[in-house]
Amino acid sequence: MRRESFRKAGFLLSMFWLLLCIFPLWWVLVTAFKPPLAVSGGATYLPFWDFQPSLHAFRDAFSGIRGDFWGPISSSIFISIVSTGLAVLLGSMAAYALIRFKFSIHLLAGLLFAVLAIGGFVVMTEMWNIRVPYALLVVLFVALPVSVWANGRNLPGPVLGNDDVTFWFVSQRMFPPIVSAFALFLLYAETGKAGFRLLDTFGGMVLAYTAFGLPFAVWLMRDFFESVPVEVEEAAMVDDIGRMRIFAQIVLPMSLPGLIATSMVVLAFIWNEFLFALLLTSSRWQTLPILLAGQNSSRGDEWWAISVATLISIIPMILVATFLGRMMRSGMLSGSIK
Amino acid sequence: MNDRVKHIFIWPAFLLVLVITLFPLIYALTVSFQTVRIVPPTPARFVGFDNYADILANARFWGAIATTATIVIISVLAQYAIGFSVALALHHNVPGASLFRVTFLLPMFLAPVCVALIAKMIFHPVLGPANELFSMFGLENLPFLTDPNFAIAVLIAIETWQWTPFVVLLMLAGLQNLPAEVFEAARVDNISAWRRFRDITFPMLLPLSAAVIFIRLIEGFKIIDTVFILTGGGPGTSTETLTLFAYNEGFKKFNIGMTSALSFLFLIVVIVFGTLYLAGARKLTQRYAQ
């Protein structure tokens, strides 16, 4: 009897939560079809019952009389697809390397890099007045090789392994993004002054978002690659097939469900991202979330217009979430969440 | 050896993260010790820790920390309580569980900007459905977004709405990975459902719970989009979060040195909260493990 009452409580809770989840989505869906009177007269919920639905908001939005909609939509699509592709590709490669090979990095070599990079940067920009992007390039081409060389020597002190490298990737996500977004804005502004425009460009956004999505990709793909049996690869190596081909033609196809799931998660994060887009774009490459934020300030009371814009951003994500939910139920991702 | 190929695999990702995330940080770190303004443009001047001292003396900074911490701590606790309960219900296959599994995920895939826009309609003091609901209890035209306490409550509700699915997802996965034999044995011994939860399920899921809450705390501290849309930090600066404060400081006053210093202080705040939390969580887990 106790058992039954627990089940009932659980059912009620789930129903209640389901209602709470669905209601805002229902609200934005019907509001997109509301004529102005159905908004200003108080809350209305059911089309044909409460109000006569009309398509005027959609016509307004897509005919472009209310500002450019297609621009932000297409930049959002291009930027998120290209960056997702790049992030998942580079992330998978790194994850594969972290699973199959052994890395050892001397802590001392890492510290050497930090000291050389920060010290060299300060000296170059403050004392010699070298422009920031050039100083960073010099740091990259001097401090990095020196540290890599030092890592090959027999240094004393602790040695970091694969798990630490993974943690290094994932820890990029633990920073408050305003720290890196603002820093990136400063850097992009400086490269712009040096004649190489990155602010408000496709390339600049893709670079930022690829780096933004990489930690997820590394973290998720590592779990998927772990379940690929190593024997298949060993057999291929006996046949003298190169690592690159093994990776591209055996490992990647074998972890296709994981690849799809990871892409979807990364895509969702990039599609919804607000802060980087707010700082790094100004007009040409503005993304959908920025358009939405702008709608809020300029047309706050025109709920039908806001709802149409919101729906455009939401619908692809509803498809992604449904698809992921189905994948999960069929057990394809069972091993991935640990 | 064949091992050389590993460098081809890892270097592109490593270089990208280094150049895009870490190099800007080095630059921002040096800027944070200078006064630099874009408007009006003034030459950079080294000022030592002045920027940091200014911020620490600024009441707005401490206000932003208090606001952010309030929103994050309350909403994460709510997310955990609701999320864990819903996960338990789903795990025990309440009627309709298979339908829920898809719909439960939805909120966390929506852009926070969209969620905030929808919330702005729903919590409209006159025309919104929330007003209609509260009017039924005789509370008409509550100042949902214009009174500081109400606004913070609304922000907490939104955060909870959006991120509870994340807790459900992970706790459900954790529940499904628990060994079934233990529960069989408990059932044979006729131990009540509540005791089974308190003595078996909850302690076994404690490490996972600690991890889930940690992820949500860290992510929660980044909140800006919802606040930006919903209240813009107002009324006054009463709902300003740390990220929003940093943004306002940098892009309305164009005081770059200050904003850089602020974002590093923000990093320190997150590290402090994170470390405190981890220490507390470890203690709790150990106590239960004994």
CATH superfamily label of the largest domain in chain A: MetI-like
Radius of gyration of chain B: 24 Å
Strand content of chain A: under 5%
- String of helices and strands of chain A: HHHHEHHEHHHHHHHHH
Helix content of chain B: over 70%
CATH architecture of chain B: Orthogonal Bundle
The poorly predicted ranges of chain B are none
Structural class of chain A: mainly alpha
What does this structure look like?
The complex is a heterodimer of chains A (338) and B (290). Chain A has 338 residues and is mainly alpha-helical. Helices cover 74% and strands 1% of the residues of chain A. In chain A, strands 1-2 form a two-stranded antiparallel sheet. Chain A has helices at 2-31, 36-40, 56-63, 70-100, 107-127, 132-152, 162-171, 177-193, 202-226, 230-238, 243-254, 256-272, 275-280, 288-298, 303-329; strands at 105-106, 159-160. Residues 334-338 of chain A have low confidence and may be disordered. Chain A has two domains: 27-103 and 161-329, MetI-like (MetI-like fold, Orthogonal Bundle); 104-160, no CATH class. Chain A has 15 helices and two strands. Chain B is mainly alpha-helical. Chain B has one domain (50-289): MetI-like fold. Chain B has 14 helices and two strands, in the order H-E-E-H-H-H-H-H-H-H-H-H-H-H-H-H. Chain B has helices spanning 6-31, 50-56, 59-91, 97-103, 106-109, 112-122, 129-136, 148-176, 180-188, 193-204, 206-220, 225-230, 242-252, 256-289; strands spanning 34-37, 42-46. In chain B, strands 1-2 form a two-stranded antiparallel sheet. In chain B, helix 2 (50-56) packs across helix 14 and helix 13 runs antiparallel to helix 14 (256-289). The longest helix of chain B has 34 residues, at 256-289. Chain B is globular, with a radius of gyration of 24 Å. The mean pLDDT of chain B is 84.
